[in-house]
Write a structure and sequence with these properties.
Oligomer: heterodimer
Largest sheet of chain B: 6 strands, mixed
CATH architecture of the largest domain in chain B: 3-Layer(aba) Sandwich
Number of strands of chain A: 0
Number of strands of chain B: 20
Number of domains of chain B: 2
Order of helices and strands of chain A: HHHHHHHHHHHHHH
CATH topology of chain A: MetI-like fold
Radius of gyration of chain A: 23 Å
CATH class of the largest domain in chain B: Alpha Beta
CATH superfamily of the largest domain in chain B: P-loop containing nucleotide triphosphate hydrolases
Chain lengths: 268, 369
Amino acid sequence: MKAATSNRKYEPLSLLFAALGGVVLLFIIAPLISMFLNCSLPELAETAKDQEVRNSIWLTLWTSMAATALFAIAAIPFSYLLARKDFPLKGLISGIIDVPIVIPHPVAGIALLCVVSRGTFLGQMADKMGFSFVGSSVGIMLAMAFVSIPFLVNSARDGFAAVPVRLEKAALSLGASPLRVFFTISVPLASRSIVSGLILMWARGMSEFGAVLIIAYHPMITPVLIHERLGAFGLKYARPVAVLFVSICLIFFIILRLLVRGKDAAHR
Amino acid sequence: MLLTVRNISKAFSGFEIKDVSFDVQQGWYFVLLGASGVGKSLLLEIIAGLTRPDAGQISLNGKDITNEKIQKRKIGMVFQNNTLFPHMTVYDNIAYPLRSGYTKSQISKRVAQLAEDFGVTDLLNRKSQMLSGGESQRVSLARTVASKPDCLLLDEPICSLDATSRPQIRSLLRRINANGQTIIHVTHDYTEAVSLGTHIAVMERGIIAQAGKVEDIFQHPKSEFIARFIGIRNFFKGHLEKSHHQSGLKQFRTSSLDFSVLTDRLASNGFVCIRSEDVTIRNLDSMAKPTSARNNFEGTIVDIVRAGPGIEVIVDIDTDKSKLINKANSTPLEVAALISNESVKTLNLHCGKKVIVSFKASAVKYVEE
C-alpha cells in the first residue's frame, strides 16, 4: 500500500511543496511583470532616445565588463591555487574572499574610499598620473569588482577542483610545463565554471548600487540614475529607465548563457 | 643499466612499500606482478615522479632523478584509468607531447605514423570521450610513445579491457617492446606476465619478494607466497608443434620432454602451465590401467612438503625412461602434484619411491610467448 502511495503521480507532500514554490516564483516574477505592464511603449521609446539614459546604460555595461575582465586575470590563477594547493591560513583566505558578500554595500564603498580618496597614497599616485578614482569610471570599476569578485573566485575554484588531478599529472608526464598544463588542460576543463563565474561577476557588478554611489555619483551608472530620477521626479520617470535597463541586462544574460550552453554541447 | 631503483620506501597510513630495489636494462619488458593493494601502482607513481618517496633513490641512464620534476624525467606513464584529455580530439591528444620543437608538418607526419602503428587512423578526428576502452588504451599508448620516453610505465593496461581487445593490446605492447622500448608493466594477472614479460618481479606486502627471468620465477618460486600467488608450480618453456590431425590435440616440446596439449593455438614458441591441483600420482603397478590422461610419466619422488590444506609431492621425471627427445640435453624435470594427506598414506608415498605422474592434455595451459 505504502509503495503504491509514493508511486502516485501527485503525492500530497509534492503538491504542497509545488504550491510553496509557486509563491516564491510569483514573488520574483510579479513585481517585474507589473513594472513592465505599467510602462507604456511610447514612454519606453522616449526614454530610449534620452541621451543621459543611453550614456548611463553604456557606461554601466562597459565598466562592469572591464572590471570583470581585468580582475579575472588575477582571480582565475588565484582560484586554481585555492583549488589545488594546501598552504597556511588557507581557511582564513577563503573566508576573506567571501567578506564582500557579507558586508553592506555602502560600507564597501566607504572602505574603498578610505584607500583611494584624494588624501590617500593611492589617491595621490593617481593624481600625479592625471586621473582620480573618486567620481570616475575607474572608481566605478573598483566598486563593482569589490562586491562581485567573490562570485568569480568561488565558481572558478569549484571548477578547477572538479578537474581530475590525474589528467594534469598525465600532461606533465608527457613533458608539458606546468604553465602549459594550466592553459591547455586545467582552464579548458574548468571553462564552464569559469565562464559561469565571469557571467555572475559581471551581472553582479552591473547591478551594484550602494558601493558605486559612494565612490562615484557621477558619471552616473544606470542604477544611480534610476535612484536620482525616483527621488527628483517620482516613479513615473524612474520606471521606464528601469524597464529599459533590465531588458538590456536580460538580453545579454540570455545570450551569454546560450553561448555557454552551445560550447558545452560542442564539447560532448 | 637503464633504470635503477634503490631502497625506495614510502609509507601512508596503514599502507607502505619498504626498501624496494630492482634494475631494468634497456630493452627489457619488466613485469611487476602482485595482488591488488601491494603497492605496485604506488611504485610506478614514484618512478614517474607523481609521488615523492620517503627514502631511496631512482636513476635513469645513470642520472639521479629521485627529485626531478615530472615533466623532465623522460618517463612516460599510461594510467590504469583513461587519462585522455576529454576536450581534445584523438589527433590533439597524440600531438600533445609534440607541440614544442616541431613544425606543424612534422607534427602531422609523426601523428599519422603513430596512428598507423597503433591502428587508430580512423579515429583521429573523434573526440576522445567517444572511444571504447580498447581504442582509448591504444590512443593513450600512442600519445605516451609520442613523447619518446626512455622508459614506458604501464599500470594494469589490459585488465580493464573487454576480452576481444586484450589480444590486440598485447600484440601491440610486444611490438613496442620489440622496437627497443623499455617497458615496466604492472599487473595482477600471471598470464599477462608470462605472455609479455622478459623479466618479472613479484611484489608481496610492499616488498619485492622475488625478481628474475620469467622461467626462473615460475619454475623456482622462492617462497610459498609466490608459488601460491602465481598459482602455477609446473611451468615449462618450449615449442608448440604443428598438429597433424584435425583435433585440438597438439604436441608441446621442451628440451627434454613432450607434452600433449589441448589448444587451438597455432605452432609457436611459448610456455605451458599445469596447476599442481591437476596432477595425479599413481603407483607403478597401475600403469597398465587405461586412463583419459594423455600425459603419463614415470619418475622418482624427490620431495614431500606440506602446502596449505594438502601435501605437495615433487616428482623428478625420469627423462631416460619417458618419451625422450634429446638425451644429451636432459636436465632434471620436476613436476609438482598437490594431493591430500590421505592419498599420501594410501599410496604409501615417500621420497625415492618410483611413481607415475599424470595430467590431462586439457589441464595443460599453453601461453604464447
